Amino acid sequence: MKKALVLSGGGGRGAYHVGVIEALVERGWMQDGRGPDILAGTSIGAINAAALASGLTVAELKARWLEMHTEDVHRLSSDLPTVSRPLVRFLMRSVLTSEAHGGSPAMLPPEERKMSAEGLIERISSVFRSRPFRSMLDTTPWRHTLSRWMDFERINAPDAPALLLTATDLQSGDLRVFCNRPLRNHPADTITIEHLMASSSIPTVYPWTEIDGRKYWDGAILANTPLGPVIDLAAREDVEIVVVMMTPWDVAPEVMRQQLQEVPQDLVQALSLTLDWALLASYRTAIKTLRAYNRLAEAMHKLERAAQQTGNPDLRIEGNIPRIITEPLVVAPQQLMPLEWIIDYEEHNHRTLFEMGRNDALRALDNRLLDRLLDQP
């Protein structure tokens, strides 16, 4: 049986993957410095997947993360215009604050009180239209960092693990899956630094990446956990899949309610929840599709068995009967991660996430082992 590891996006939260990978190696699920048969990732998940395909061991991957700092990933973009002081005051006082946070519209200067939301948007748009704009942050440092991490000759070697990276076509809105193996009648791609940059090009935050005349944004827009392409690549072979997410999955509702305090308490928490649920949505859709596929496959297998038992040719299925796909093992945190961890590439955060990922993976592996033991007659 083949094995596949699917790593989700999440920026600086990607240190969580490293802890999960450490646990998978400890338990013998994958070989250190080699990885499983199939590696798939989006955004920072694509980066960690490519690092494994490059042959990095757990110790080497940890070292890369610990020596990395925020300035090794991004810096302020020269595209970012200087916003006028009255506009900043208006935003801070009228939009981002409330009486609970020490501000109210009455505190605005008279000339700023006249600004309507429509006028505000128009003023912001005019500032950005006055000069070319691609992103708020410049990822030139990230390109240099990844060039030191990766061994592209090894990634594209015939004996390397299959590597799938996702990106979103900016001009069509389609999901593009880059793979070092032929996929869906598409020839194999030669994976380069551009594919990694494309998969992690967060819209408007990071600049888009151009490949073969097409412009790409982060794959997390459409497939934060690219499960479907992994199943397509495995074709009719059995595959054991581990999916690593950085949003809680299968957590008791009462636990989530305690974490959320019923509703978001401020703007940051609201933005964080919006992002987490949006990133989780693609996997929810993928797993529903997988379960529907399995129900259909099971029904077809039952018909085939009935045809054999009764000798009734009308019950026979023409062509190949689809195989039933084992649901992935999901490794995910038990609590929501702070929004700021997405752009925090510092050692203290990395070490916290290493430990969290390892503990969550060991718990998930132990639970699956227990389930299998209980299922035995």
UniProtKB/TrEMBL annotation:
GO terms for molecular function: hydrolase activity. The keyword Hydrolase applies. A motif (GXSXG) lies at residues 41-45. It comes from the Bacteria. A motif (GXGXXG) lies at residues 9-14. A motif (DGA/G) lies at residues 218-220. CDD domains: Pat_hypo_Ecoli_Z1214_like. SUPFAM superfamilies: FabD/lysophospholipase-like. One of its GO terms (biological process) is lipid catabolic process. PANTHER family: BLR7027 PROTEIN, NEUROPATHY TARGET ESTERASE/SWISS CHEESE D.MELANOGASTER. This is Patatin. It comes from Roseiflexus castenholzii (strain DSM 13941 / HLO8).
